[in-house]
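Record pair follows.
FIRST:
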Amino acid sequence: MAQLIECVPNFSEGRDAAVLDAIADAVRSTDGVTLLDVDPGRATNRTVFTFVGEPAPVIEAAVSAARVGAQLIDMSQHSGEHPRFGGMDVCPLVPVSGITMEETVQHARELARRLGEDVGLTIFCYENAATRPERRNLAVVREGEYEALPERLASEEWKPDFGPAEFQPRTGATAVGARDFLVAYNVNLNTTSTRRANAIAFDVREKGRIRREPDPLTGEVVRDANGEPVWTPGLLEACKGIGWFIEEYGVAQISMNLTDLGVTPVHAAFDACVERAGARGIRVTGSEIVGLVPLAVLLDAGRHYLARQGRSVGVSDAELIKIAVRTMGLDELSPFDPAKRVIEYAIRDTSKKRLVDMTLEAFTHETASESPAPGGGSIAALAGAVGAALGTMVANLSSHKRGWDERWEEFSRVAEAGKLCHDRMLSLIDEDTEAFNRIMAAWRADESVRAERIDAATRYAIEVPLEVMEVALDAMGICEEMARIGMEASLSDAAVGGLCLRTATLGAGLNVRINAKDLKDEEARTAYLARAAELEGEAIRREEALTASVRARLG
């Protein structure tokens, strides 16, 4: 899985379209990066850019954007409603998929170093990337804003992490951080009352409301020993919220910022609003996610609501997304198109022809054509995907069988494992073709690097079918378990799945052998062939035992 991070730089310019276009062009011109959004604000005189990609190109795009911003934005002439202290005011990196926060922190600090050394910006690291505990909070780092920088930078306490320690009148200072993904999320109510929406927001947000006694609405404010009001926390951690009225739609909403999805996911916020609204005689009618979200947000929500129904969660991503959208009413105010609203889908290169996107008929015709790919390797992966899908199907059907309601979790766990197998097999269909393309490209490379590239491409062309074999045997376990405990009416499906997985393993094994003969490293070739033979033998043994057990049960 590719590592994806999001970069959300905020520039102190929201009125000059030429400046914003130049910054956007700097991002767009960086290979491997997709610019998702440019959100300018005239009153704040500030623009939020959002782009995503793998870490290296994202860092490059951020440096390019910063360089343009430093040339075109003069902070000594800036005014606006939003707190700020630099031309590129803040630049957080956010892990999206396939990457940990710890890894994102390292990339943020590398970005901070590049901005300081290559662009000449004064850099402070904040949030998870902070080098000192007292600098984690952005408000603390930016205290006093641009106007306070000359005095702050003169003190040893506020020596920057990277870049010039002297005040830079034109560029000011920049805060570079690593933070969790923040979702702006609004829940729609069947009321026009901002006061009632606020009451629900106070119920759910982490900050809660000021405590009053004896009556929580009209009583006296409770104060601590220092005379400060005492607050009663709300239901949800990592949640900020208020109530407001949206004239465009004629409804009140609970508007929330969810700042740590690992603590409070979107579906938990929705459920809490439903519960508290109901307690106040108000009904939640739907909700909306502002901007784009990682795929995991919707998949987690879909699993949550299927589990509440006692249904297997080992279904397709498309089905999980559909359940999430319908349950939370994400399309009530406007259509919710996953292709445009899910980050991983929005950045997908649709110009690249993928085998898995073809119809079954088109795939078979492409296989039968004069083109050398797809070939046996892709077909082996396809057989593995179908075999894993059959085992998953039996698990899903068994979880829904009348009289087995209490066993749905048992079968759901099996179906989830099966889904992981057939999802991975689907990606290996195209990876096998990519392996062929790499070998062809290596042979066309310059003579000075040709041998090295041929060796690397050959190893990749061996390792892809080896993974097909390994995943096929993982999926064989799904079919074996379903043949043992699954519903009797689907025994033959589990057995056919096993046969497909045997074919996948043996077919991929032949691919390992034909590619391994071109490997110059004899020790590596021997190891690859030995591993393939081991997997082939296991596949034959397990499939024969599976088929025999099914035949015995069927009589």
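SECOND:
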Amino acid sequence: MPQYKAPLRDMNFVMNEVLDYPSHYAKLPCAENSTPDMVEAILSECAKFCEQVLSPLNQTGDEEGCHWENGDVTTPKGFKDAYDQFCQGGWQGLSHPEEFGGQGLPLSLSIMKSEMIGTANWSWGMYPGLSLGAMNTIFIHGTVEQKHHFLPKMVEGTWSGTMCLTEPQCGTDLGQVKTKAEPLPNGAYAISGTKIFISAGEHDLAENIIHIVLARLPDAPPGTKGISLFIVPKIKCDPAGNLGARNTVTCGSIEHKMGIRASATCVMNFDKAEGYLIGPPNKGLECMFTFMNSARVGTSLQGLGAAELSYQGALPYAKERLSMRSLSGKKFPDKVADPLIVHGDVRRMLLTQKAFAEGGRAMIYYAAKFTDHLIFGKTQEEKDEADDQLGFLTPILKAFLTETGLEAANLGMQVYGGHGYIKEWGMEQIVRDTRIATLYEGTTGIQALDLLGRKVLLGKMKTLKAFSFEVLKFCKDKGLISNNPHRKEMNKFIWPLVKYTTNWQQYSVRLALRARKNFDVVGCASVDYLMYSGYVSMAYFWAMMAQTAYEKLAAGTDQPEFYKAKIQTAEFYFDRLLPRARAHAECMMASPKSLMKMKEENFSFLQ
């Protein structure tokens, strides 16, 4: 298993040099505690915890898995101790309000923390990760009493949280939810039903688990309009946080999965469990989107983490493993063969991993700024604008980065050849762990429908126009008609970026016109549209990184090779990866006829 090393140099490059986080943080109310020195210290300490505590548990946790017995779940050896250290370090409440015991730091900083945790040990990271979404939901939609009742313990990590959406008869289609909520004389509700695929639904890390549950009130209308949201604690407690009687919520079993085996995926049974309404009646799905969007941004980190960790495993192996001679002649004549890294195809795989990891990091850190504006925006207009842009970017981040992360994980395994298929190297675990990322929190297809159907077409392309305007303004300022001293070097990035971005806008208009006549156009085009959007978006950030690298080299630096590598990776991305967008464009603009005309009975002739 690759021993994770936090890529702090690259993280700082994106934060400080490309996206100018110091200026961003200086404008926030928590600027005092978000100075560059403070941020660097926080990330450095988190890196130590991830490298020294979490990374060594990654492979052993996978081998041992979780244990279920009579409703209780025991996590793998070392997980509880790691969680205690995590809580003692104050990491859970890093970006939550000081009023509830947190440190009040920007939410974007918590996302960077989560990147390191997830890359070092994704299974472990899911336990505190699920809590963050539950905390955000209570913070935004809960009453004053609910916030003070639940958040202090959750912020310190003594209590954890989950989200309970899916049921045996429904996955994404939450309009089919059957879990019931019956009013009780004390103002609470009796929650009854079964939820499945509940990550961290039961475990031995925290003393209490706060479930956020979708259920129906007795007079609820059918479908998604009749779903309400409830807080259901595993153990009841008084307003001071003192634990009382066990609630009637139990773990019926845990799933035996392809990957993330050290993360408990539970079947949760609610038998008239006491719960408390959060948010307005029958508006639970709207409130739950706070949780779901947190989880979707978090899941996009798994794609980034998979690319990063697999690259960290593949690169040293490619440098050390001797196999054949370079086609252009011996590179190491004193050895029996040349190392793998001299071969063009191995370099293709390594550069693809590197481009997806570093490009994905820039995309996520860019989006993370909007999360800060959501919390600290000075006006409602600023908050709404941030919410709109984050809503547009979220499906791209979640789906595109998990798909490319899975590809990168597979490439890392491929670099090892047959050894990659063997457990002891740990490369196959990255593939198994990452496979789920394209599925949970909405599959790639669901994210694609959200992007094209809701965010672009129903949103009348408002957010697409805003983002593409920003991209085209960058192109104008840095290449087309600018005084940029690096204009000549940058035009190899600028001209393709202009073409792909303007085509993005044109394709969107054409799909909108076609969809008026046949809405199947949206479903048939959506995944290719999302992947096109992802490749073009990442190209923008690689162009930004290349521009920054040219500026640093021109100014003089003691790390010239670092910046040269950025430029060379950008060149690889534009030459070898961005052209994939053309194929996605052809597919998304093709007629839906060949997809939709076959009769259902003609899919199989086994009889």
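COMMENT: The chain has a mean pLDDT of 95.
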